[in-house]
Every structure is written in structure tokens, then in C-alpha cells.
Design a protein that fits this description.
GO terms for molecular function: alpha-galactosidase activity. The protein is an alpha+beta fold and 730 residues long. Helix content is 19%, strand content 29%. Bound molecules: (2R,3S,4R,5S)-2-(hydroxymethyl)piperidine-3,4,5-triol. The site of (2R,3S,4R,5S)-2-(hydroxymethyl)piperidine-3,4,5-triol has 11 residues, from loops.
């Protein structure tokens, strides 16, 4: 390995010969297609971030960047440290704080060496080793860069060789520095059914933190995903903006510190709340990946960077197919039996979707799961509801020529369950305190290997008994109260060990069942992140399926996650007609959660046709490029376009979001990402039976016209939802 050090062709050296004890200063650029993130080692071996922006043609010029800034005095030379240590010279928020084996709390990290590996055509890994000159304590920083997508995944590995254990009090994944006149944050907040509510603000001096202390369902109040625009809030197609998100499903913390020099320092990682980690000598502590992309051409490009990266490298089967489905949750809730489900299997076929998804309520006998306060943990089929088991339903699905999927919530336990009675020590609780429930349930202690085996076994048994099982919805409804593990000796490790346990189980599941599609659900969008999505093919954004709300929510989710990962179901939420509801659900991975047998003839016909239309265009939605054309928060309508990579076939979804007098698309919508020289026809599709389109589908337009003048979807109070197909003509 050592011989690989210093082989980086992109590094250049200069000698600061005027310094008495100088070593060579060196810049280490991490270049992707459009950008460079430049690290710099000074003559005293301090490692800083000197630049993150558009890349230069001559990389030797990066070293001139710092001199171009005339900021006030940097008293330590560490304000832009690549990984700020604590307790020595630092005067700003650290990335790492420790208590050494001898009780000393000071840490200083100096550059030792680095190496760059080309892992694949498009993927490089830079590893930089930092070491304390006094203590035998090392931090290695990893920057995995994806060239074409301008995405960087950053993490750190911490280890030491001290005489005893070291306490890690803070252990961030990444520590970035941005430079600008002003910084504008878009963060998200929410609660059940209110996920991904954006909030924009100008960042002021001091520290702004977004974090979670919820343990499980960590995103309930806010996700770790955020954007920071430089100079002004970046619109879709201009301006510089950084998108960041932590690939971690547990407690996270992102500190944004606008320091006295007017630099923005971003420090992201696991939340150190209640988590002082005792690190034994030679043990490696690996932080989760902090994922970011920088766009100098607006939010649209940043989102497409993440979409392309996620589909290619992160999301399970991101470049594959997905199944359309009928789910019974809102159609039946807990009230079903075998006959009812067999009817729903027929409805699945009638609707034309691929799969029937049996939701909550199919299990537990002593404390049957007939409502949400019993039975979690008792994953035996409820004999009263389903006397012939799941197997008979899976077989019946086969006869109906549809696939069968099932809901589980294996991390959880109901106080009224046989599991709780048999294994009270598997439950997260403080025995001396009153139990406190979230959705009437408690969380199992996944730090315990016995519990990990149990959770793995829940799925393994289902698959073993029903090899044709084609889909899993994995739910997680409770947060963690009274955090305590009867298994762990050191409770400070609890939150971290829980997540390690969860990922361990998911690894085992994927090792044995690599392909089966799984939906990541957490009472809606309570757990959506790129660590979990390595094991899941899609996520459930929210239980709120009111299409009007969904337009806004899906719009914001779409900045960070590609449409193929976003499950959208047509339900009875909201006041909109079936066409509007279906059109909105079609913008991601389409499903239904309605009583098909209660649809009137025309609504049923519309849904059946919509499934076929969706099947024809799903490839573009899942694998094409997404462009946001009209923001529902900025006007009276929303418009979102998907176009294939050849720029020859696409679709635009348009929705009126304001029902006040005379609102509509008074002006045309400018399309994006077309070939200016190609000719296109625009046709309205997914019309409700008996209605006709006001769009002239004979007219031929140049790509240039559509991108400069646009097309009017003709939205108004009688046409509130319009889908337009774009087709290049030969
Ligand atoms: C919460 C999920 O978000 C719903 O879709 C549904 O599966 C229920 N749990 C079932 O309890």
C-alpha cells in the first residue's frame, strides 16, 4: 500500500523556503467533471480546505486561491481545517473531540500522507492520514468522488494506539468550508403526514444545527438533507448551491457555523448526543458517509447529480425495474379476512398492476393485531383472519397472475405481545421507569445479536415458507424513548450499536435475498436516507397522500431522491378527482390504495388505462432526467418534466395548485433539456374518459421553440391536472 502514497499526478509542490522548519506545502485537489474541492497541507502539516467551486484548467493555480481573499486575521490558521480537532488551537466548532487514555483532552491533527486510488472509470478514492504529533492517535479522511455526477461521499476512520481506551466525544464524518458573501439555507421540517416542509433562511453568524435524537424514525421532525446556496438562494438553473445529506438512519447532526471570517463551516455526522464512544486501542471507528454535490448552475443540476449517482451507485437496483401495486392499508385497515383479500387479489388483476401488497394486521394470535396496540413481534399468521396462512394467498395471487408482497415492522414490539412476555430483556426501556409508547409500541434492542437474529428470522421465515413472495414493506413507526439496552455494558454506545445492528440485519437479508424489492417506510417518511436505501428499492415519502400536499412534498423530495425511489399511491385522501390523484402518483413509482370495487365504471376505466399509460412511460420517469419547470410554491401551478437520455421522449406533469378566481397557466411553460434542433410533437395523455384535449397534437415544434417560448398546458379550473407527452419526430 505504502508505495501508492505520493503517486497522485494531480498534486504539485512548492517550497516555502523562507520558513525555518518548513516541510513542503502541497495542494491536493479532488476534481470531478465540473468542480474541485481542494485540500491544502501547509508547511507545518496543517490540512485545510482552500477551495470548493468550479474547477480550473490549470490545477497549479489552486494554491493561489487563499491569497485572493482579504479576510480578517485567522488567529489559528485552522478556521478552514479539513477536520477540526478540539482542545489544542481550535477556537471554532470541532469535527472531533476526544479524551485520551491519560485523561488529556487535547488533540492536534497533522497531515502524514495521502493516496489516491482510481476505483473505477468514474470513481476515485482519496485517503488522507492525519496524526496527532503528541499522541498515537490517527484520523484517516476518505473522499470518494464520482466524476460525472460531481458527487463526493466523505467519511473518516478514527483509531489509536494509546495505552488504554480513548473516549470519542465528537466524531464527524466531514468538515467543509465554503466561502461567499452570504449563505442561504434550505432545510426541512415536519411531523407525521407533514414531511419535507422546506424552510429558507439566510444563515447568520454562529451555529445553525439540524439534528435528530429520535434513534429510530430519525427523520420524523427533520431529515439531514439540506441545501446551502451562495450569495443568493439558488434558483433551478443558475447560482451555486451545495446539496448535503448524511447517509445514516440514526441520530444525526449537521452544524453550520458562519464564523467571524464569514466562512461557512459545515460539520456533519452521527449526533454525539448521549453517545460518547469508548474506542479501544487498535479498534477502528468508521463514521457514516456524508454525501454532497456542488452545482454552479442551480438546484436542478444538483438534483440530477444526486439522481444519477443514486441510481448508479447507491439505491438498490437503481437502474432496474419496479412493480406497480395495489395496497390494502387504506382500503381495509385491520379489518380483513381471507375472502376479502382474495377479492382484492382479483381487483389487483382487474386494475392491471403487478402486485398486491398485504399491509398491517395479518399476524398475532394471543393478542391479535386488530388495531395498533397489540401483536407486534408475534409474526405468526392470525389464524382467525387467515386460516390457510399466507401461503394460500400467495398461491391465489399466482392463480390471478399477480405477485404478492407483505408488510412487516420487525424492529418493533407491542406491550401486549407474546414476544414481550417471553423476552422483556429484548425491549428498549428503563425498567425502573414507566413505559412510554409511540403509536402504542416499543422498540426492540437491535444492539443485541439475539434480537438481530430474531429480526432477520422474521423475513427469512416468510421467504422460506413463501419463496414466491415478491415484495416487502418494512415499516418502523416508533421513536426511542427511555433509551436503555439490557444487553450493552456501555449505554453510551446504545444509539450507535442499534444502527450497527440494523445494518447488520439488512446485510444478512440482502446477502440471502439480494433482489426482492423492499419499501423503506417509517410511518411515512420517518426514515429516508442513502445508508438505508442501499438495501431498499424505494421509500414511502409520507402517509399524507392528499395529492395537493403530495405535489409540494414530492417536489422537495425530488431534489434529493430520484423518482424511481419514491412510492406514490392513489388513495382517497384529498378532494381531487381520481385523475388528479392518479396523475400525481404517476410522478414516481405508482401504486393504488383504494377500494377498486367501489370505483364507478368511468373511474375504473380511467385507472386501468392510466396503469397502461404509466407502463409505457415509466422507463422515462424512472431512468430519465428530471427537470422542475414550475415551482408550486412560487406560482399557481406546478410543472415537472422527465426526458429520456436521448432527448427524444418525455413527459410533463402539470397541476393547478391555486383555485382562486381565474387562476391557470396564463403563460407558457418553458421546457428544459430538449435538443434545440430536434422537432417535437406534444400530446395530452391520460385523459379522463369522455373528455377531450385542448392541446393541438398535430403541431410540430422545434426543441428551441419549446425551450425558449414553451408550451401552455392550458391549466384552469376545469383542467386542473394535465399530462403532456413529448415525442421527437424523425
Ligand atoms: C404506517 C405506514 O406509513 C402506513 O403506510 C401503514 O403501513 C401503517 N403504518 C400500518 O400500520
Amino acid at each position: 500500500m505504502l508505495q501508492k502514497f505520493f503517486t497522485v499526478s494531480s498534486v504539485f509542490l512548492f517550497i516555502a523556503s523562507f520558513l525555518p522548519i518548513c516541510t513542503q506545502a502541497q495542494s491536493i485537489p479532488i476534481e470531478t467533471q465540473s468542480n474541485a474541492l481542494v485540500l491544502h497541507k501547509d508547511s507545518a502539516n496543517n490540512l485545510t480546505v482552500i477551495y470548493y467551486g468550479k474547477k480550473l484548467s490549470d490545477e497549479r493555480e489552486y494554491v493561489l486561491v487563499p491569497a485572493s481573499y482579504k479576510q480578517s486575521e485567522d488567529y489559528t490558521g485552522l478556521s478552514n481545517a479539513a477536520y477540526t480537532p478540539s482542545g489544542s488551537k481550535n477556537i471554532l466548532e470541532p469535527a472531533i473531540s476526544v479524551v485520551h487514555a491519560d485523561g488529556n483532552k487535547s488533540l492536534d491533527l497533522r497531515y502524514v500522507t495521502h493516496k489516491l486510488d482510481q476505483l473505477a472509470d468514474n470513481v476515485s478514492l482519496l485517503e488522507v492520514e492525519l496524526k496527532d504529533p503528541v499522541y498515537d492517535f490517527t484520523v484517516r479522511l476518505f473522499y470518494k468522488s464520482y466524476f460525472a455526477e460531481d458527487v463526493i461521499e466523505q467519511w473518516s476512520v478514527i483509531e489509536h494506539n494509546e495505552k488504554g481506551a480513548v473516549l470519542l466525544e465528537k466524531f464527524a464524518s466531514a468538515n467543509l468550508t465554503l466561502k461567499s458573501n452570504s449563505y442561504w439555507l434550505r432545510q426541512y421540517h415536519g411531523d407525521w403526514a407533514k414531511e419535507m416542509q422546506p424552510e429558507d433562511s439566510k444563515i447568520t453568524h454562529g451555529i445553525k444545527t439540524i439534528d435528530s435524537k429520535l434513534g429510530t424514525r430519525a427523520n420524523l421532525f427533520q431529515p439531514s438533507s439540506f441545501m446551502v446556496s451562495l450569495d443568493k438562494p439558488a434558483p433551478e438553473d443558475e447560482g451555486t448551491v451545495l446539496f448535503g445529506t448524511l447517509g445514516y438512519s440514526g441520530n444525526f447532526k449537521v452544524d453550520m457555523e458562519l464564523d467571524y471570517l464569514n466562512n461557512l463551516r459545515i460539520i456533519g455526522g452521527i449526533n454525539n448526543y448521549a453517545s460518547n464512544y469508548t474506542l479501544k486501542p487498535q479498534e477502528k471507528f468508521t463514521t457514516p458517509k456524508f454525501i454532497y454535490t456542488l452545482s454552479t448552475t442551480g438546484k436542478g443540476k444538483a438534483s440530477r447529480n444526486l439522481h444519477n449517482w443514486a441510481r448508479k451507485y447507491k439505491l438498490l437496483d437503481g437502474q432496474g425495474d419496479r412493480l406497480t401495486l395495489l395496497n390494502n392499508w387504506e382500503a381495509t385497515y385491520f379489518d380483513f379476512n381471507e375472502n376479502k383479500l382474495k377479492e382484492l387479489l382479483k381487483d389487483t388483476k382487474k386494475l392491471g398492476v403487478d402486485l398486491f401488497l398485504l399491509d398491517d394486521g395479518w399476524f398475532a394470535n394471543k393478542y391479535p393485531r386488530n388495531n395498533d396496540d397489540t401483536g407486534l413481534g408475534d409474526w405468526q399468521v392470525n389464524k382467525k383472519k387467515l386460516p390457510n396462512g399466507i401461503t394460500s394467498l400467495v398461491k391465489e395471487a399466482g392463480r390471478q397472475d399477480v405477485k404478492f408482497g407483505i408488510w412487516v415492522e420487525p424492529e418493533m414490539v407491542s406491550p401486549k405481545s407474546e414476544l414481550y412476555e417471553q423476552h422483556p430483556d429484548w425491549v428498549i426501556k428503563q425498567s425502573a421507569r414507566a413505559e412510554h409508547y409511540f403509536r402504542n409500541q416499543l422498540v426492540l434492542d437491535l444492539s443485541n445479536p439475539a434480537v438481530q437474529n430474531f429480526v432477520f428470522g422474521v423475513l427469512d421465515e416468510l421467504f422460506t415458507e413463501n419463496p414466491e413472495l415478491a415484495y416487502i414493506k418494512w415499516d418502523c413507526n416508533a421513536i426511542i424513548y427511555n433509551a436503555y439496552s439490557a444487553h450493552l455494558k456501555n449505554q453510551e454506545h446504545f444509539y450507535i450499536e442499534y444502527m450497527r445492528g440494523l445494518y447488520h440485519v439488512l446485510e444478512r437479508i440482502r446477502a440471502k435475498y439480494p433482489k426482492v424489492p423492499m419499501m423503506l417506510c417509517s410511518g411515512g417518511g420517518g426514515r429516508v436516507d442513502y445508508a438505508a436505501l442501499q438495501y431498499f428499492t424505494e421509500f414511502w415519502p409520507s402517509d399524507n397522500t392528499d395529492p395537493m400536499e403530495r405535489i409540494f412534498m414530492q417536489y422537495e423530495y425530488s431534489y434529493f431522491y430520484p423518482a424511481i425511489s419514491t412510492s406514490n399511491h392513489v388513495t382517497d385522501w384529498g378532494k381531487q378527482p381520481i385523475k388528479f390523484r392518479t396523475d400525481v402518483a404517476m410522478m414516481g413509482k405508482l401504486g393504488f390504495d383504494i377500494v377498486v370495487s367501489e370505483l364507478n365504471e368511468k373511474d375504473l376505466k380511467f385507472c386501468q388505462d392510466a396503469v397502461q399509460i404509466y407502463n409505457n412511460m415509466k422507463d422515462i420517469i424512472w431512468h430519465g432526467d428530471q427537470y422542475r419547470l414550475a415551482d408550486p410554491r412560487e406560482g399557481n401551478f406546478a410543472a415537472i418534466q422527465y426526458i429520456d437520455t436521448n432527448r427524444s421522449a418525455g413527459v410533463i406533469f402539470n397541476y393547478l395548485v391555486n383555485n382562486r378566481y381565474d387562476q391557470g397557466s396564463h403563460f407558457p411553460v418553458l421546457l428544459k433539456g430538449l435538443d434545440a434542433n430536434k422537432k417535437y410533437k406534444i400530446t395530452e395523455i391520460n385523459l379522463y374518459p369522455g373528455t377531450s384535449s385542448s392541446i393541438n397534437n398535430k403541431q410540430v415544434y422545434s426543441g428551441e421553440f419549446l425551450m425558449k417560448i414553451g408550451i401552455n398546458p392550458d391549466l384552469h379550473k376545469d383542467r386542473t391536472s394535465v399530462i403532456l407527452e413529448i415525442k421527437a419526430i424523425d
